[in-house]
Write a structure and sequence with these properties.
With about 220 residues, this protein is an alpha/beta fold. It has a single domain, classed as Phosphoglycerate mutase-like (Rossmann fold, 3-Layer(aba) Sandwich), CATH 3.40.50. The chain is built from ten helices and four strands, in the order E-H-H-E-H-E-H-H-H-H-H-E-H-H. It has a four-stranded parallel β-sheet. Helix 2 packs across helix 3. The mean pLDDT is about 95.
């Protein structure tokens, strides 16, 4: 059995401002950059065989900062399926503003329920996504306008089954640098815990998580 290390990106400007980020490409704060480097130093004794990341800059920059601090020279594999949950029309909106507009209970249902997706992104936002070269070769990604946590699980399950789980079964040390909701789904996939349970897991920025993996995966 290999070893799985999950790492959320360092603090982003969206985290600092309490904004729904989703697929918006918002950078790390100075604190987030320090967090990423500190995460790398804390993992300096780890020798990963491969690192996986979303295609979003805050995740990729966290990889580079952590790898530099840890002294890693490891191949990085980027994939949109490790992106944060798409928050639809909420993306870019402050959470407090969303609560004022839609009500506290509704916003919390969007944030923490498994099956409830926020309102879909606007046609303008979709046009920007369609023009993003990172998704040009993946039609399934280009047309996503909102996601529930269950939707995230649907898109991530093939990546877990076909990429991550086989690497672990081959006794490799695998690091995944991603986002809060994506890592909650990975905890579900890796451990077999119900998604309803991992949906409420605390996933602090730049704090390594090493779950006990349940293989084989069906």
């Amino acid at each position: 059995m290999g070893r799985l290390v999950l790492l959320r990106h360092g603090e982003s400007t969206a985290n600092a401002a309490d904004i729904f980020a989703g697929w918006l490409d918002l950078p790390l704060t100075e604190r987030g950059m320090r967090e990423a480097a500190e995460a790398g130093r804390s993992l300096a004794d780890l020798r990963p065989d491969v690192i996986h990341s979303s295609v979003l800059g805050r995740s990729i920059n966290t990889v580079h900062l952590a790898a530099e601090a840890a002294g890693w020279d490891v191949a990085l594999r980027r994939d949109w399926r490790l992106n944060e949950r798409h928050y639809g029309a909420l993306q870019g909106l402050a959470k407090e503003a969303a609560r004022s507009r839609f009500g506290h209970d509704q916003v919390e249902a969007w944030r923490r329920s498994v099956d409830v997706a926020p309102p879909a992104a606007s046609a303008y936002a979709l046009a920007e996504q369609l023009a993003d070269r990172r998704y040009a070769a993946t039609p399934a990604a280009r047309l996503i306008r909102t996601e529930s946590l269950a939707d995230v699980a649907t898109r991530m399950t093939p990546y877990w089954r076909d990429v991550l789980a086989p690497e672990l079964a081959a006794d490799r040390t695998v690091v995944v640098v991603s986002h809060g909701n994506a890592l909650r789904v990975l905890l579900h996939l890796a451990t077999g815990a119900p998604l309803e349970e991992t949906a409420h897991a605390q996933v602090p920025t730049a704090m390594p998580i090493m779950p006990r993996v349940a293989l084989p995966v069906r």
